[in-house]
Amino acid sequence: MARIFAYIVHKAGVADDSAAELIAAARKIDPAASPTAIVTGWGADLDAVCSNLRTSYSEIWKIAHEALAYPNAELIRKALVKLLPPGSVLLVSHEHFGIDLAPGLSIKTNSAFVSDVLAIEGLEGSFLKVVRQEFGGQVSAHVRCDISSGAVITVRPGSFKPLDSAPVNGAVVDKSTDVGVLSAGRRYLETVVAEAGDVDITKHSVLVSIGRGIQEKDNVALAQDLADALGAAVSCSRPVVDAKWLEKSRQVGTSGKTVKPKVYLACGISGAFQHLAGIKGNPFIVAINKNPKAPIFQVADIGIVDDLLEFLPEFTNKVREMRSVAAK
Amino acid sequence: VEILVCARRVPDTSENEIELNSAGNDIERDELVYSINEWDNYAVEEALQIVARVGGTVTVVTVGGEDDEEILRREMAMGATHGVLISDEAFSGSDGRGIATILKAFVQKGHYDLILTGVQAEDGGAQVGGMLAAMLDYPFASLVNSIEVLDGKLKVSREIAGGNKEISEIDLPCVLSIQTGINEPRYVGMRGIRQVASVPIPTPSASDLGVDPGAVGLAAAKVKRVDYFVPALGKGAEMLQGTREENIDKLVELVAAKGGLK
Q1: Which of B40, B148, B222 to mutate to test the interface with A (most CBs of A within 10 A)?
Q2: pLDDT tens for residues A47-95?
Q3: Contact B171 A287 (CB under 8 A)
């Protein structure tokens, strides 16, 4: 069996949640696997991450390099190409860093590449069978991947439940000098933090959240009317921001805000995982969508198949009616 | 700048409910509405806007068959200078690496300063751009949501977690994968498409590009889709099946009970 590595994403001295999930994923490939963690960075933050991983990983390869103080995928790819033994399987979380690193790494290591893997069904000979989603999660696909010359696999965050294993006393192995000089055609300059926006959707306990199903900008008012009647705020999924119908600060999801409401009304939202990943705290989710196959119905508590543009005004009227009765 | 945009024709998820076919091994493809992959359309618009600012040309390329020509015409109607349909039986069933291998051969026949792809395709894996860059030894940035042209390089922004932006400079030539929302793609009417209907579209083959047929296509693919399926639902939502009025009454009650009516 090929040796399995897990590239650990970290920030401010703390390993990402995926560090534990990648061990679980590695065990699905090989139940006996003891994956080696690879951590790149610089200074005290790097040491802290390596030290913390010693309870979960039996071996941690530390790559300390001043040029890696910020994770530049091109530099890290060059380092990994030098370090990874031929035929290795490398796992990395499918988020903005993994997306940047993984495809090119698979070319430079001449290994297979599978992205955004949700489940691993196991290995038959040199063929690994995995599950991916396509078409925004409307269907899943089994994918067969020949890992005889190694593989680079990006793993969907949250898809593999961390194992309940006894702590190990892992060893940190310093591989920094094996990496040599690193230079890249892309150089990090700065991070621009998202603007706050007029409404802080993270502070609201009720959200009327709209997706592509709202169809056009003028219809956003239908959601705002309902939100006003409920005492809620309007949030949205990515297509609404892409179309410039609402500000980025209203977007729920991995590239937007993480919210923890009590009630979440998903209106015309299909339920792509990037969106669902931004909904925390197990709220009561109501999904209204004209497509009965929309993935949102798998995670919602209550589902209604209806035309949003007709449903919303009637719902708003009913809420207003209730309010006026209550006020009397 | 000479810009190449790699695009694909895919089933349009905003126009279709994607379902399994009766055999359960593929999606039902009859009567599907196809369109240009949404991310790729943003990439073409971005290329057009860059060329409008600093000059140059925009070539849109796809790997496929004659059905795929329609997206090239559509993007030419938007303003792309050239469309190219790379087409050969040998390419059928290529995985991401196979497609990148074909595109690499095409890139090396021309002179492009900047190569754009979409971040991902509806049925793809966010892979071809990064693979192509590695094959060409060009720098690469994924998830790009703004581009500023400087002298011999670009200043680009990548979309990272929480709506934050990672700003970098990147040397030309390079490959960027473009995120939706980077711009507002222009509308294309039927009239615009008719105007480019007779513009010739070259269709280079494997031998024209010098691609080894053994290195691409189904036989060379390390990664193959076995089948499609719809996973067994978890608990799933309780579906309200009444009339709209009944559903609304029930919903108001439920939402109030959960503290949604403050």
Answers
A1: B222
A2: 999 999 999 999 999 999 999 999 999 999 999 999 999 999 999 999 9
A3: no
Judge if the upstream peptide bond of residue A85 is cis by omega within 30 degrees of 0.
no
Minimum Cα–Cα distance from B225: chain A residue: A143
DSSP single-letter state for residue B37: -
Q: Cα(A264)–Cα(A280) distance, rounded to whole angstroms?
A: 10
User: What residue in B sits closest to A207 (Cα-Cα)?
Assistant: B260
Using CB atoms, pick whichever of A103, A144, A194 lies closest to residue B162. Answer: A194
How far is it, in rounded angstroms, from Cα A71 to Cα A214? 38
Q: Helix (H, G, I), strand (E, B), or coil: what is residue B206?
A: helix
> Cβ contact (<8 Å) for B167 and A105?
no
Of all helices (H) and strands (E), which one includes residue B192? helix B190-195
CA distance linking residue B179 with residue B143, whole number of Å: 5
CA A324 to chain centre: 43
Residues 6+ away with beta carbon under 8 Å from A100: A73, B130, B140, B141, B142, B143, B158
Q: In one letter, which amino acid is B212?
A: D
User: How much is the pLDDT for B260?
Assistant: 78
CB A152 within 8 A of CB A113: yes
What's the pLDDT tens digit per position in A248-274? 999 999 989 999 999 999 999 999 888
Instruction: Tell me the pTM.
Output: 0.94
Chain B positions touching A106 (Cβ under 8 A) are 97, 131
Query: A169: distance to nearest CA of chain B, Å?
Result: 32
Strands of the sheet with A186-192, listed across from one edge: A186-192, B165-171, B153-159, B140-149, B174-178, B114-118, B2-6, B57-63, B82-86
